[in-house]
Structure formats: structure tokens, C-alpha cells
Amino acid sequence: MWIYEKKLQYPVKVSKCDPRMARYLLEQYGGADGELSAALRYLNQRYAIPDKVIGLLTDIGTEEFAHLEMIATMIYKLTKDANVEQLEAAGLGANYAGHDHAFIYRDPEGFPWTAAYIQAKGDPIADLYEDIAAEEKARATYQWLIDMTDDVDLQDGLKFLREREIIHSMRFKEAVEILKADREHKKVY
Amino acid sequence: MADNEVREDLADSGKAEGTVNPEERARGDEIYRRELMELQKVDFALVELNLYLDTHPADMQAVQQYNQLAQRRLQMCAAFELKYGPLMHFGHSYTRYPWQWIETPWPWQV
Amino acid sequence: MYDAQWREWRPYVSHCDPCPPVRVKRYIVPPNQYIPYQPMNLPQFSLDEALFRGTLWPALYSPYPSRRSPKGVTVNG
């Protein structure tokens, strides 16, 4: 069961109307290494992984939904009051034609989100390395997004999200160590 | 608009005595955002400690810090909700009359 | 102090490259890469600061300055 909290994890501020950035932010909304993929990847892996790391996957998977909401908030604020001309100039003309100001789970180039982004091999080590790689790729995406805007308020939110990827990667590495170390417990001398 | 009218009617008639908090209308303003941020600070530390404890379950000091902050969070939430309405649904927060959950602003609108 | 997180490399430059060559490229290696397992009792940021850093622990903090300066000039690296 999940409970919704009527607040963001981090105060999101955007100080200029910039639908161009909104389009690029879709990478983290409906992209391969985005927050939706991350949340679903970790929560789904829980069913075929040793009990010791299920708590971590549950908690990081849940935090990813809070990050998805932050990205959605950024996109919302960047496009809410943009007119058709502004959206079209930002490359969101096709989006407007099909969806007005609604956004959907797809990447900046329009590729719809796909379940193929979610990996679950069923091998704990392989899956955790997948997760570590996903976190590092998402960290890199945030770097390139931070590079693309001069809005310091938007940068601030993106920097928070980038740092979270570093922490998640750290925890997944520790999860690998936990699974590696388990053999010591079984040794009986 | 219609919502506000209804609420004022109720307040006038005394039917909703004690249910209309004038400060409620301030949701979304600067004081609201500042108080929300105080809660976000504590909640963030709790998220960090939670993930840390997932891989360090035997760190007694971190467990203590987690429990202390959890307690502080409860108090802060209660005070915040009294002023601005429920933070959670499904019975995890109290509500005044009329049902407050559906009131704006939602997090992305603030 | 945090500059220590950056690494440099010098890509091969050909006479046939059409764009002015970038002689030095940079990439960042965040501190989590050097911590195999987080030790207990690491110093913490204050709660006021932790939220804005995105972590509770200075040892895991990695700043990332935008390569786009406020003037809109892209700084290469």
C-alpha cells in the first residue's frame, strides 16, 4: 500500500517560462533512465531478490516517485502558461497537437516510455549492478540538464536530484556487498 | 468560488463552528512555504537515515537519531496540519468540515 | 576541495577535425566511487543544510556547477 503526502520532497522553483527546458526534462520523466523507469525497476525487482535488500529497493523505489513528481512539477511550471507559439518554438508543437498542455510519458524526441526500459534478470548481482548503472546514468542526465539552463532556481532542484542519484548508487553498492558477504555467515568451523 | 461561498455560509450560521480557520486561506503563501520547508528539512533527514539504515541496520546511533526525528516530525506535522489542512489521506491525517483533502494548492501548484 | 572530483583527459586532435579542437575534456567522479561501504558515524550536515545539499553527509556531497554561465556562454570541459 502507498500513502500520498501532499507536499514535494524538495521545494521546486522555476524562475522563467521556458518550454524548451520542459521538453528536455522529459528525458527524466518518460526517458529510459528517468524517474518513472527507476521507480518501476526497483519496485518490480523486489519480488525476486534476497530478503535482505527488499527494504532498500522499496524505499529507493518510493523516493523515485517523489522525484518523478518534482520533474512533473518543473515541466508543469515551465509550460503551464506558455502559448501555442512558445510551445511550437520549443519543439512541443506536436505535443500540443495531440495533447494540448498535457504531458505524457515519453522522452524529448517523442519516443513513448516502454517496459523495455525496466530490467529484471532475476539474478541479484546482475540486477543490483543494473540499478547502480541506472543511477549513474540518471546522474549524468542531470548534469547535462543543469548545463542546459541558466535558471539558477531550476538548476537548484536539478542539483538536488543529481545528488540523490549518488546516494542511491552508494546504497546499491552496499547492497551488493551485503549479498557478497552472506557466505561468511554460513561458514561453520 | 462556490466552495468559498458555502464555507462562509456555514461559518455565519455557526454550523461549522471551529471548523473554519482563517489561516487556512494562506496556504501557498510565503509563510506556508517557509513552514513547509522546515518540515521538508526534517523529512529529508529521515529519508537519508532510512536508506542508510537499510544497509546499516546495526548502527545504534543512527537508529536513535531516526526515532528522535520521527517524533519531531509527528509534532511538526500536527502543527502544520492544524494550520493548513491534511498532509495525508486515507485516515493518516485528521480533517475539518468540510472535507479538506480536495482543497488547493496541490504540491506542484504551490 | 570539491574540485578534486574532476578528472581531465586530452583527446587525440587530428588536422582533419572540422571544429576548433577542445584540447582538454573533463569529467566528474563523485565521492561515492571511493567509498566501498559507508562507515558509521560520519560527520553530518545540519538539517538546515542537508536538504539543500541533497545529502546528510559531507563525505558524499558532490557539487555540480552548470557549464552554462549566467551570460549564456557555454563553458567547455
Automatic annotation (TrEMBL), chain A:
Belongs to the manganese catalase family. It comes from the Bacteria. This is CotJC. It holds the Pfam family Mn_catalase. Coiled coil: none annotated. InterPro entries: Ferritin-like, Ferritin-like_SF, Mn_catalase, Mn_catalase_dom.
